[in-house]
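Exercise 7.
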Amino acid sequence: MPFAPKHALFGPTFLRQLAALTRLFWRSSQAPRAFVLLGVTAALELATVYGNVMLSDVQRSLFDAFQDKEMAPFLQAISLFLGIAAAFVLVSAFRVYVRGALEIRWREWLTDYFLKEWVSARAYWQIELHRKGTDNPDQRISEDVRDYVASALGLSLSLLSAIATFVSFAAILWNLSGQWSFQWDSAHLQVPGLMMWVAIGFALLAVWITHLVGRPLVAIQFDRQRYEADFRFSLARFRENVEDVALAHGERGERRNALARFHGVVENWWQLIRAQRNLTIFTGGIGQANSIVPLLIAAPAFFSGHLKLGSVMQTRIAYGEVSGSLTWFVNAYQEIAHWRASIERLVTLLEEIESTKLELAQTERIQIARTDTRDLALQKVRVARPNGTVLVEEADARIAPGEHVVLFGPTGSGKRTLLRAVAGIWRFGKGRIEIPLGARTLVLPERPYLPIGTLRDALTYPDPVDAYPEDAVREVIEAVGLGEFVGRLDEGDHWHQHLSGGEQQRLGIARALLQKPDFLFLDEATSGLDEESERRMYALLRERLPRTAVVSIAYRPAVAKYHERQLRMVPSAAGMRLEAA
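Solution. The predicted structure, written as tokens, is:
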């Protein structure tokens, strides 16, 4: 079932979420400069409104001169119109530029903030592993941040413009229609500021009906983001695993799964266009009907000779501006609905991150301590699942610098989970893991992670490419048997698709040789190599990293000969027990 927000478009929940999200940036160190840009943008927005007022007044003079067939006033009005129009264009152009500068600064800061919250505390791992309420956090950070910032600026500035437009043109409209009178039977009726009251009444009715018609758009827009992201992610995952799919002859399955996800996109799209159709019919009808209202009301006064053509045209312009400002909500409704969905998706992501941190803080967990000892030590470490099921009983072990230890155990015995606990990403359980102060650890899985980029990026990850001398980079590539790739170090590609499993494992060993960690954990990191290549990799580690402790998880007994000590996972009454072999 799709998850959609149940909150109203406006209300306490929306205001709380909007305030929480907005104050992140506007209370940051970037705020002073951003306020300057915002002030300039607002001033330019008001300047365009003032330009519209001046243009409307010039057009009144122009049409009056046109009606009176007076050439000199007509040419004078044309000249003034061209001057004001040129200034108006310049102001509009700079308004777009300054607003764009503010928008990218806001988006840049907010994207960095979300990435820090999602990545730095490893919330991404805990959310993906244990909590399923937040879909596609990557899409929320990349697209919802963009849409939120763009709409926040666009809507707020357009609302400011609408307010300024109303204030500026309301007086003009009031004065123009203040003296209009109508014949009713034998009496003459006069309503002060008649066109103002017509515009206000028309706008209130339009806003009320628009909200009733367009309310479903909020939930539909929320689900649209999720369906689109799910479909896009499934295609990206297929592209990343094309070889595995081809080997399994999984093309039909991939197509079937992709179409199943796209079906959600299609269903949501039909809901969206039906809702937009209903809203567009109404808003379009409002716009067309509203455009002729001032002409219908002004016609009797014009035909009776009480109004000149220029006054009618200025009345029509002023009514359109006032009516447009009052119906701002009607015209902006679809964008507001999209903005509302983006805000909720971003806020729920932050709430999910905070809930994950709180849950981990309140759960009995394995303690990771940095001490001034020289050994890595496990002290009564019990590893459990999130539901409390014990995987590994209280484990005690000590690993000294330079020592090579291999860990054996049957499939599902908790070896990898114990390794995750040592790496600090699995905290469920209890006990204490002591790591020497300042010691650097590195985990190499069976398939090391290779980021999209150059081969040099993949080799030095997670360090920057300039962290190591060029000679050192080329030397380790040669040493692990990947000399044919030396000339391609700066070639960008999806290297995880172009390197074989064995080549990726060699690259992982080269990464370890460069980084020189104090404790290196190999999770079947040589399983794709033949026996001779595996022997050479372990010999390289022992030769190049004599002070590095190496801990290997393996299934093949032959791996034991590259290590001085063996540990084994054996069954017990409550999970698995770690003991010396």
